[in-house]
Write a structure and sequence with these properties.
CATH superfamily: Vaccinia Virus protein VP39
Number of domains: 1
Bound molecules: S-adenosylmethionine
CATH class: Alpha Beta
Radius of gyration: 17 Å
CATH architecture: 3-Layer(aba) Sandwich
Number of strands: 7
Helix content: 25-40%
Number of helices: 6
Structural class: alpha/beta
Largest sheet: 7 strands, mixed
Order of helices and strands: HHEEHEEHEHHEE
Amino acid sequence: MDALTRRKWDRAAGAFDFINGLGAERRWWPVKHEFFSAMRGKVLFVAVGTGLDIGHFPPGLEIVGIDISDKMLEKARPRVEAYAGAMTLRHLDVHDLDYPAGTFDQVFTSCTFCSVTDPVRGLEAVRRVLKPAGELHMFEHTGSRYFPFNALLHLMNPIARLTGPEINRDTVDNVRRAGFDLVEVRHAFLDVVKTIHAVAPSPRVADPLHPEQIPLQLDEPLLVAPSDGL
Ligand SMILES: C[S@@+](CC[C@H](N)C(=O)[O-])C[C@H]1O[C@@H](n2cnc3c(N)ncnc32)[C@H](O)[C@@H]1O
């Protein structure tokens, strides 16, 4: 467990709802509502924070919310108790996911992989606990490809990361590098705020993350080509 990151988010927990709950949450409400409406089956929600997103979750699901910060989890607890389904919380670092391979149908994240110390390793851990063809759904802010936003985000990043997230990451590329197949990337604000939909590939070749699975022998690709904007 990464003590520095945990302490940083413990410190941020006190004012988190005040800072994020007003402007940001109101602004992204419609995008997030549609995004979370895709939740199905057994879901892992990585980095639940204070639980601001729980109000968007469709009722009746089995959801595990994890976070590295106890203070965040404390704040999330009443929102979890108010959820009309089976939601549990765990103090757990995404790098150290201890679930058996293939446990979850879906993994959701929301402003998470801007904060995880080693995003590719964290995403590989996520891929391991997804069922074959299980879905990864992310609402994330990232760096930009376009001037001047790319330059500004790079310049501001050393300050931003002291008290909060990194603001210049290439999360789409990190998802690819972690071995996911991209399905769709939708931009919500410029190319900075986006939703990413990817799937854990079915085992077509021997996969070190899923050694128990027998590779399928298929001639044709399993997935359609990624859509525009990837
Ligand atoms: C920007 S906040 C987002 C919280 C919440 N998803 C939201 O949007 O309101 C980032 C969260 O990631 C959590 N976090 C950072 N690194 C983590 C890790 N390695 N494993 C689990 N959670 C982590 C922090 O404790 C914090 O709650």
